[in-house]
Amino acid sequence: MQEKKFSYRRLMFTTFVISGCSMVYELLISSVSSYLLGDSILQFSITIGLYMCAMGLGSYLSKFIKTQLFDWFIFVEISVGILGGTSSILLFLANVYLESYSLVMYSEIVLIGTLVGLEIPLLTRIIEENAGNLRITLSSIFSFDYIGGLAGSIAFPLLLLPQLGYFSTAFLVGAMNLGISLFILYSYRRYIGRTALWKIIIYISGAGMILGMLFSENLASGIEQGLYRDKVIYSEQTPYQKLVLTKHKDDVRLYINGNIQFSSMDEYRYHEVLVHVPMSAAKKREKVLILGGGDGLAVREVLKYKEVQQIDLVDLDAGVTELCRSHKDIKKLNEGSLDRAKLKIYNEDAYEFLENNAGKALYDVILVDMPDPNSETVNKLYTDLFYRLCSRNLSDEGVMAVQSTSPYYAGDAFWCIHETVKQEMPFVYPYHVQVPSFGDWGFQLASKTEIQIENLTLQQEGKFLTQDNLQGIFLFGEDERSKKELEVNSLSSPKLLQYYLEAEKNWE
User: Fold this and answer.
1) Rg (Cα) of the chain, in Å, rounded?
2) Does 4 score more than 50 pLDDT?
3) Active site residue 372
4) Which of 39, 312, 364, 369 is catalytic?
5) Residue of 11, 174, 311, 459 with fewest CB within 10 Å of its CB?
6) Of residues 233, 224, 260, 182, the one with CA closest to residue 92
7) Which residue positions form the known binding site?
8) pLDDT per residue over 281-295, tens digit each?
9) Cα(473)–Cα(401) distance, rounded to whole angstroms?
10) Which domains, and CATH codes, for the chain?
11) Which helix (H) or strand (E) covers residue 292, if one does?
12) Comparing C-alpha atoms, which of 298, 262, 279, 274 is closest to residue 432?
């Protein structure tokens, strides 16, 4: 009786661990696919749906396993450990070297899901045979299964991914599955027929997982190099996103989640029109708010105005601001702007900052320099409600500029942002500039009072932007104008995300 109770507890622990591992694999495949392909809603939906279906298939197949349950369970755990442990690296390799990334992704989901679907039915039958009482067995095993799933879903975003990254997380969790198979092997060896063979496979596979963890940075560096044109000189997974810095001769480029943020060769074009147009249109320039712009390049341009007394920079990711404050190549590019006395950095959500600051202090100029709206998270920062909060934080004579994607490559998205800003600001003036590393890139100039664009005098000329070409940035070619009625982007109806993702597919 005592041995049955002890065996029962050890198998409950097993259930808890393998359930957590299963959840991490599901989240890993979804996250890697979102990082490589974009459209996180689609990737998570496909992964979850297909994974659940494959688990159902595995549960169905379990009925054909009638004997040697422990041997089968060890086989399943070894297989899950190997497939899950190598899942991230195989997806990255597929993206770099194969055209059929989706085939590899779907194959991983189906294989891992099917094997995971075998786990609980096998454990249930093992526990029933050793402990008896089907009612208690089912209630206990599903309780530990659900709790383990919760543990995995919490550990992945808060601990595993930020601290270990995609590769080490997969190898670690794969090693955990292999560890469980070894734990079962030693705990129930009298029920198992091929102990010597299983030990050899487990030890060899486990050694592979450990080596993978130890050399994950080298593997990541080698594979990531295939994702980028230039040499990767810095790579970091922050709690929020993947940062990669590349360099080729004098060209330094920053990528966030695979999307280029700037090239040192032409970033001045982007930042000159983002900053100097609204700064020239504003009647006062004492207090400036920059939302996003953690690279410090917009701050560099704002600091050219002597009348500026205060600059507040709000960027969620401290990893970005610290990288751009300390890395010698970026610090040289932004001229050490992130260390200036006039600047105060807030590493918090821009949406929450605006909510908390509303009514406390008004700004003369607000610069919205957010990443493109390629996910539901960033889409929130392009909604009518977000621009309403911007308006509440802007003085009556203040001016705002909004980064708005490309009017040529993502025309519907650009004009959707235009219409959304118009919902909250009485006067909105679209403009754009050609940035070689980006293409044709657009902005919105918005204010509560009318701006005489044709009489606008540039207060600060740059390498690109001068008084002579100022009027030209407000002119659009016929192929860049909106051809249809576009809906306003809101929290409840993220139309902008839909327009942006459609544009991405059209230009693939």
Assistant:
1) 27
2) no
3) no
4) 369
5) 459
6) 224
7) 241, 271, 295, 315, 349-350
8) 999 999 999 999 999
9) 14
10) 2-216 (1.20.1250.20), 224-261 (2.30.140.10), 264-506 (3.40.50.150)
11) strand 287-292
12) 274
